[in-house]
């Protein structure tokens, strides 16, 4: 019998009868305070007062009635508040009234049931005895006997050769399935793909997103342009290409730029172009502070100093943003001299191989 | 107890008559003859559930999951998990004619062209936030009350898996609409995966079906989101519930309650009514929020594009701690060796997160090792009565909280007009100092509360009533506790540090030494429970 219904107040407390288990560093004192047993039951008003009981009954019913009204209201709201194409207000009203109806339908049931249980159902605490989680000794003995029989009748531990054969086969079977994951992606080598972008000699720098090429003369000092390769939108995978090729273009006072050896001709009259893909984990680095010439990545706040070739001055990123070497073509449009000289974006294992 | 339908069908049981009852009786017998259901009803029908507000947190988690299943199923009837580019022609004016993925377009359609669609999206998202939050609070309840002790260690691990699965469900779901924010979240995952040594580049490549973002990821995450992960969640919830029934519920100390009993309400009818009603309340509250508060307005963000800015945007709250850890790494943590790139700025956060989660998962086994206590424990402890555990928990919560706050470092900086550098450096310091301070403070408070409990158990409450003794001396009258009241204060498990002794071979093993050190750490500052003798003595002192 799982439950003895109703604890008589003040009954002696049942002792936990089980084989004593090691109690480790627990301190078990003979001088412990004794459990006083259950306190007497304090009746609720509705246990003693029939008027209150009927009142509670009515209250529960009102709650269920409110639920019914809510559900009907939801159906009505669905019809009365339709969505009109292009009218966002109608979406909002539909959402609001339909939701309120549903909510009332649900809350009425919920509060009604809880109120019923608390005020009208038997309020006595009841007691159930616990038993050790561990089974009875006979049961455990029988279980281990079953395993012993299984072992004896199959020879699982005796016939070592076939047992090990089975284990080997079981390990290999799923392992062989690993290969089928290769075609989750095309045949290329990701490390090679990541080292190239769409930029090549002569690609015009164009505005993001409309693809209009940028003339050097349009770039005034202090301005900043979000840039894509001119032919990006014709490429086969524009999003993948953009995720590597996005560039920021800024014009500074040429004397503000600290240019290192070998990069003297990568800029044009103070116009510089840097990869927009953060070298941390790849967010677009697109907040430019004109006074300080700092670029800020919104994701983890790495900051890059454009006057010092986008060196990291704060945040978790390690490497400067790669610079795109640029120049102008004969019509005065800004063009790339080549691809980036290093992989753009987040670091990866084979990055400098 | 009245007789229920448990006798063989040949002798139909006598049950209350009346037209309705006769049908119910016939139905019960019909099912019984074919399923032997009575056994289950007998075993579970009057199972006892103890009552305490904190025991409802797990219920909230369970019920919000049911709400998620219902609303999610509705969404699947409309959502298209495809990244194929389409031109949006739905009824949201500002995005008309914009190219986006079918996933994004169908999510917009759910929001603007299906009556109740937006409501179901918002119910789904709010329920998801509540689901993860309630699991987290439920875990804290179990931790701080020691409810993870034997025999419930395995159920703690199952619950932990549920927590991780819930976060995975949330992240995969957040990525499905393929809007600007969800794409940005995936970009960060992509960057983190690429930073994993040796296999990272390949894992990212295979996951995204080519280069980021590709056209595969939404379809793949969709499969995980609506099939694999829910199946695992349901299986884990099943195991969690079965173990709950086998182990029975824990209960707080109270007069009459012992390690050998469970005191509370039976499933039939009180608990069923309360819990069933509570499901509707949770559902109703989620519905109310979804009806009135917008969440994830993807139409404001637009479709994913790798280039636009998105400052000040936040991931869903439960991803914050991971994002925050990334932000707290100081500059320059990356190096090359033999031509390979070691992105410590990614590897270290991943290690921190994994170690943190592993410690959480294994905590019950650590404490079991320290106490060496092999008995079953069914009484929940008050946090103050396990000061070291409480302090460890407080340190863990603080560590998590700092990582989490770091995910909003930019908002903190702009909101309070501080420099981002200052906020970041403060949080870096807090990540290390915060848990230490929290540990010390929580331990002090616990011990102070224990001392106060002792005082009250022995001398009663201060009644605030001052009387003048015949000798002219003023004293405050102390109100003595009843035995019932006192019992709550004096019944708790008491442990002392291990005396390290050589074993039978005269050796002190490494394990014993370690346990000695750890048990000293745990139990050195110990307030022993009040004893019978002390109570007797105090009674005599108060005549
Ligand atoms: C614990 C489990 C789950 C969590 C935490 C969760 C969370 C989420 C979240 C945060 C979203 C984004 C919603 C938005 O647009 O704002 C989402 C989308 C979605 N979820 Fe779930 N979800 C869960 C389980 C499920 C299940 C079981 C189903 C299907 C039966 C489902 C179906 C969907 C669908 C179809 C979408 C995309 C539609 C949309 O974004 O509006 N989800 N989920
Ligand atoms: S992605 Fe730029 S700082 Fe993390």
From TrEMBL, chain A:
Membrane-spanning residues: 60-84, 96-116, 161-181
Domain Rieske: 271-335
Keywords, comma-separated and alphabetical: 2Fe-2S, Cell membrane, Disulfide bond, Electron transport, Iron, Iron-sulfur, Membrane, Metal-binding, Oxidoreductase, Respiratory chain, Transmembrane, Transmembrane helix, Transport
Needed co-factor(s): [2Fe-2S] cluster
SUPFAM superfamilies on file: ISP domain (SSF50022)
Subcellular location as annotated: Cell membrane
Region (Disordered): 1-23, 31-50
Main location: membrane
Known function: Iron-sulfur subunit of the cytochrome bc1 complex, an essential component of the respiratory electron transport chain required for ATP synthesis. The bc1 complex catalyzes the oxidation of menaquinol and the reduction of cytochrome c in the respiratory chain. The bc1 complex operates through a Q-cycle mechanism that couples electron transfer to generation of the proton gradient that drives ATP synthesis.
Family the UniProt entry places it in: Belongs to the Rieske iron-sulfur protein family.
Protein name as annotated: Cytochrome bc1 complex Rieske iron-sulfur subunit
